[in-house]
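Memo to structure team: turn this sequence into structure tokens by end of day. - J.P.
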Amino acid sequence: MKTKLSALTLVASLLASSAAWAAVTVRYYNRDSRDYTWSAVCSGVKTSVTFGRSQTASVTIQGSGPCTVQTGAGNVVLKGGEDLDIKDGKLQVK
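Reply from structure team:
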């Protein structure tokens, strides 16, 4: 009985921690001299993501992929690990 309880506790802990690891991380280069904050939908949950001006950096979007980033120039689907380029307000996957 004690072994079953320990195994059940371990499984519950692993499931809870896997939700914390659910995220999409991308690297970007923003060539524009302004920040961009766009809406993103990951796993049906809407959030926002900000890309800082004139910099190369990484950003993590919470939620499991794929994520759809909704920009003024159209939607971009991200699975994670992509390199992005931002120029003239357009988000492109390299």
